[in-house]
Amino acid sequence: MVSSLAAGASLPLPMPALVAVSALQSAALLALAVWAGVALAPRVGLHAPVAEAVAGRRPVTPAVRALLVPGLVLGVVAGAGLAALGAVAPAALVEAGERFAPSMAVRLLYGGVTEELLLRWGLLTALLALLTRVLDGGAPAPGRAAVVMAVLGSALLFGLGHLPAARALTGALTPDVVLYVVAGNAALGALFGVAFVRWGLEAAVLAHAVAHVVGALVGSAVG
């Protein structure tokens, strides 16, 4: 749809209908990811500590305190990485960014929350459950190899998942654009995956959100 809009092409449905269809698709994927996380996370030792505290009617302060510093630190590191990546972005992506720049609210809500629910809570958890069964014979706890592979696998898919948007915005996926989009997002995805595995889902959400804020601030200061 983005590419059609950018090209000024006629749309197959009225805009309100296209928006509704897109919203329903996103909602369905998000619901599936949330369900997968809820069903599988306890089996592989993954957690959403703040949400679990709320659901169990326990104080949330200890859970927040445990993940606050790691989430902030990793977010600052990731934000610095975003700014550094912005300085070496391919020209086609720079030009696309000048035409289409999502608001900070969109970056925080979609990137910080929705992508973490989809990619970490849903996909990483499902991958880890599968790898635990394959590599560890369904052991009560996943082995190190399964954890590393799940973090890296979900990070790679996170990078690949950004290619359709990059193609829609630039019009073509040149080798430099593909390498930049996949490698850059995969590196950040691995960082957020470590936050999730080590400190819980909310740590990954916090790190991702802070990364967008820090990346924007540092990029503006440097630029």
Would you kindly provide a written description of the structure presented here, covering whatever features stand out?
The protein has 223 residues and is mostly helical. The protein has one domain (13-222). 83% of the residues lie in helices and 0% in strands. It contains ten helices and no strands. Helix 4 (61-87) runs parallel beside helix 10 (201-222) and helix 9 crosses helix 10. The longest helix is centred in the middle third of the chain and has 33 residues, at 104-136. The protein starts with a helix and ends with a helix. Residues 1-13 have low confidence and may be disordered.
Give the helix/strand layout.
Layout: H1 2-7, H2 15-44, H3 49-55, H4 61-87, H5 91-99, H6 104-136, H7 144-160, H8 163-170, H9 175-199, H10 201-222
Q: Please give the largest β-sheet.
A: none
- Indicate the mean pLDDT: 87
Radius of gyration: 18 Å
- Overall tally of structural domains: 1
Please provide a brief summary of the model.
By secondary structure, the chain is mostly helical.
What keyword list fits this structure?
mainly alpha; 83% helix; disordered N terminus; 10 helices; 223 residues
